[in-house]
Design a protein that fits this description.
259 residues, alpha/beta, seven-stranded parallel beta sheet, 7 strands
Length: 259
């Protein structure tokens, strides 16, 4: 399927690896030019070069911390008028809420709620004026089914979800959609970190914890960055203009609810 976005420009955050990289690769495969942002300059430039060689699109790499005002300024200087925005930042640490103070909560809110909001604020009016825009926030399945050790993430990402619900109905009349993409267990570094925390708490090995988690999933496997990216690319396509304010769960069937 032709997604109808060839020649568009996307700003993709957290793009050097994992789910962000999967999204960048899928968009590039449909002819989208990219501005990629991540903190690790070496890994980011490697990803950028891989995508350039594979798809022949323009790829600009911006090594910056998108969760800071300075990092956002760098990203927006390189891509002041994106047609597509994919927000993504590493999740906060796992743990017990009793151990978290104000500093930890503010850091989580900055990364997983306020940063996407600031990026939306900086780009959405330009999208409206051009009559096209697709914003996808990578959040977490924990928004639908909270995980106790991910309390910082549960809270911050749920705040973003509420914010998006309030504005996504205002922008869609201008062909600008804002949606959230909620990953369950995908085979990424983030999953590995969560498994390591669970292994430490239980006294089991990481491999034992990982295998148990895999078997618990109805799909009997973890997701891949490529399939996540393909879904993100469709949400950014010309065909997805009638969907806004939605929370799309990709978790292999792990969430047991009807709604």
């Amino acid at each position: 399927m032709d997604l109808g976005i060839k020649g568009k420009t996307a700003l993709v955050c957290g793009a050097s690896k994992g789910l962000g990289k999967g999204c960048a690769e899928a968009l590039a495969a449909d002819g989208v030019n990219l501005v990629l942002v991540a903190r690790n300059a070496e890994a980011l430039e490697k990803t950028a070069e891989e995508i350039r060689r594979a798809h022949g699109v323009n790829v600009t790499a911006v090594a910056a911390d998108i969760t800071t005002p300075e990092g956002r300024a760098q990203a927006l200087a390189a891509c002041p008028a994106p047609d597509i925005l994919v927000t993504n930042a590493g999740g906060p640490p796992t743990g017990d809420f009793r151990d978290w103070g104000r500093e930890q909560w503010i850091a989580a809110l900055d990364a997983n709620m306020l940063t996407p909001i600031e990026l939306i604020k900086a780009t959405v009016d330009g999208m409206i004026s051009r009559g096209f825009g697709r914003i996808v926030n990578i959040t977490s399945s924990a928004v639908k089914a909270p995980i106790d050790v991910l309390g910082l993430s549960n809270g911050a990402r749920s705040g973003l979800t509420g914010f998006v619900a309030g504005i996504a109905r205002k922008t869609v009349a201008h062909n600008v959609t804002i949606n959230n993409l909620l990953p369950g267990p995908f085979d990424t570094d983030r999953l590995g970190a969560t498994m390591a925390g669970a292994a430490k708490a239980s006294g089991k090995s990481i491999d034992e914890v990982k295998e148990a988690r895999r078997k618990q999933n109805p799909a009997q496997r973890f997701g891949t960055a490529a399939e996540f990216g393909a879904f993100c690319a469709f949400m950014c396509s010309a065909h997805a203009g009638y969907m806004t304010g939605q929370n799309i769960l990709l978790d292999g069937g792990a969430y047991p609810g009807t709604f």
